[in-house]
Amino acid sequence: MASYLLKRLFGLLPTLLIVAVLVFLFVHMLPGDPARLAAGPDADPQTVALVRQDLGLDKPLPAQFADFFGRMLHGDFGTSLRSKRAVSTEIGDRFMPTLLLTLASMVWSVLIGMAIGITSAVYRNRWPDRLGMTLTVSGISFPAFALGMLLMEIFSVQLGWLPTVGADTWRHYILPSITLGAAVAAVMARFTRASFVEVIQEDFVRTARAKGLDERVVILKHCLRNALIPVVTMMGLQFGFLLGGSIVVEAVFNWPGLGRLLVDSVSMRDYPVIQALVLLFSLEFIVINLVVDLLYGLINPTIRYR
Fold first, then answer.
1. End-to-end alpha carbon distance in the chain
2. For residue 30, what are the contacts with CB-CB under 8 A and spacing of at least 6?
């Protein structure tokens, strides 16, 4: 496994290089002039030119990319054009709220989603299955921003039970985590159901039932482990989606996380922050996929890595 892990880690380098080039070209294609935004709407052309020179935006694109890539190799992602703070500091201040929100969303969505999926598979084509699948379709179909505003209207405005903005206490995490995890719970439920329906029809399950084992033992001991590999794959993908795709939810709840930082950076054409955030999100997906691949060996010891 160690050699496999080293191969995968070395394989990250060309992928990140390609992502870095694409991200650099993408942010420089965005409409708008960062120098004008940084100088202010009332600045004269001479001031804007000085700001552009100070930011290094007057250089040719290849020279700008060389500067960006050289700093990146030393762990320096530059300075935010908006706040004049180091990009690493900007991201570090916003990382934990996003990570905690993602973990909270992932925990409840996986538990609820798997419970609905297993129940639907066990009671296939009966009312628990129909009810569970109806809930999953609703969770997938309902837009996140609409669900967030609906929850705020009910539980914050009408009932006054929960706060709407901020990340100071555990109560602030309830509404954003429900909004963020609803679609993930629905996807997990449908995927778990499909996986369990396939496993339940296997011969070893019929053998376990023929031996007189309790149905709960058959489902939790014999079916769960064999059905987990595709479920874990989807779980890893959904975790990456939550970590990098919380932009809408963070905007709705004014959450002080990476998603909100990305929205603000795009509106201000803050090139260094945008580039660093997209690279971070890309690295997160790659690392999560690696962790999922390693988990396969723990779930199924017959899997060998080369």
1. 7
2. 266, 269
Which one-letter amino acid corresponds to residue 127? W
What are the C-alpha distances in Å from 33 to residues 26, 79, 298, 299?
Answer: 14, 17, 51, 52
DSSP character string of the chain: -HHHHHHHHHHHHHHHHHHHHHHHHHHHTSSS-HHHHHH-TT--HHHHHHHHHHHTTTS-HHHHHHHHHHHHHTT---B-TTT-SBHHHHHHHHHHHHHHHHHHHHHHHHHHHHHHHHHHHHTTTSHHHHHHHHHHHHHHHS-HHHHHHHHIIIIIIIS--S-SS--SSGGGGHHHHHHHHHHHHHHHHHHHHHHHHHHHTSHHHHHHHHTT--HHHIIIIIIHHHHHHHHHHHHHHHHHHHHH--HHHHHHTT-SSHHHHHHHHHHTT-HHHHHHHHHHHHHHHHHHHHHHHHHHHHH-TT----
* Residues 6+ positions from 284 with CB-CB distance below 8 Å: 240, 243, 244
Could you identify the residue written with the tokens 């628990």?
128
- pLDDT digits (tens), the chain, 306 positions: 667 667 767 777 777 788 878 877 877 777 766 776 666 666 777 777 777 777 677 777 788 788 777 777 777 777 777 777 888 888 888 888 888 888 888 888 888 888 888 888 888 888 888 888 888 887 777 777 788 888 888 888 888 888 877 777 788 888 888 888 888 888 888 888 888 887 777 777 777 777 777 777 777 776 777 777 777 777 777 777 777 667 778 878 878 888 888 888 887 777 788 888 888 887 877 777 777 777 666 666 555 555
Query: How far apart, in whole angstroms, are the C-alpha atoms of residue 120 and residue 132?
Result: 6
d(CA 29, CA 23): 10
